Amino acid sequence: MLFRHTLRTSAAALALLLPFAAGCGGPAQAExxxxxxxxxxxxxxxxWKTEEAVLKYAHLDDTPxxxxxxxxxxxxxxLQAVRAGALDLASSSEIPPVFAAADGAPxxxxxxxxxxxxxxxxxxxxxGSKVTGIAELKGKRVGYVQNTTAHYFLYALLKQAGLKWxxxxxxxxLPNDGLAALNGGSIDALAxxxxxxxxxxxxxxxxxxxxxxxxxGNFLWSxxxxxxxSPARRAAAADLIARITKAYAYVRDGREEGxxxxxxxxxxxPLAQARKDLVDxxxxxxxxxxPVGDDTIASQQRVADTFTELGALKEHLDxxxxxxxxxxxxxxxxx
Length: 335
Fold this sequence. Notes:
It is built from 13 helices and 11 strands. The protein is of the alpha/beta class. It folds into 2 domains: 7-117 and 216-334, Periplasmic binding protein-like II (D-Maltodextrin-Binding Protein, domain 2); 121-210, D-Maltodextrin-Binding Protein, domain 2, CATH 3.40.190.10. α2 (50-57) links the parallel β1 (40-46) and β2 (66-72). α2 packs across α9 (231-252), α2 packs antiparallel against α10 and α6 (175-184) runs parallel beside α7. The longest helix has 22 residues, at 231-252. It starts with 9 loop residues before the first helix and ends with a helix. Residues 40-252 form the Solute-binding protein family 3/N-terminal domain. Belongs to the bacterial solute-binding protein SsuA/TauA family. It comes from Streptomyces viridochromogenes (strain DSM 40736 / JCM 4977 / BCRC 1201 / Tue 494). This is Extracellular solute-binding protein, family 3. Residues 1-30 form the signal peptide.
């Protein structure tokens, strides 16, 4: 059954990454803050490595340090990889760091915020389904990506419709497994994001709920502690985050068509749709990084409190404990 392939199975996949953990940077004393040539950053990407692609498109991939990109189906897996020592830098929504830190001993800190669009974050039903709204999900089998934005906005949409989490038969699934389960009839609806939602629509899926106006648009960069302990690695991390901001500015400067072609090829969607999604996303909330702020910490605290209310977190979590301003100076300089 696809239901057996929950997010917990991703831990086994992370074991394959552990041999690379030793390559995630050497001892801090061996690195000069002005010489980044000895630095290698192992960086996570969700979906089709959008960040790597946009850097290359904007001719900003010629970094003075090495970047090793690893692809994941979600931010939750990236944070697991950070915890396992297999990633230096993870990008995710506000939610995965909450669960990664819930044991009280995280080996990472949130170091920067990347503002981004909240489009393609939806609850969908398959083609021909008689379910046309969230209220009709009572008693239905609903797939969702656990400990991610999909988990969060599905809970919020259920509350808006007067339903409790216990009113649905919730099935935690990875995005690709969820899409297969939806098309195969194993679930009645799917809460997911990104490429899986794009593909679902290509296959005739209908949107019955959206996280567009529920999610904050704050996407977090989390760095493993060993990155923060080295001036050179901090500088490299800040430079990479800033380059992604500059790359998207390059795209918005009349170059959407070219990047849409790259996106269409990677996501197997029509060029016109890829361009529309890109333009809509950048119009809704241009992709750009910013340093840590009290408002961004407070936003994630609201998210954590919601998961405590849901029962997904067993006790109150003070998110401020795993945020730091350690990258602020380097990031402001790089931007």
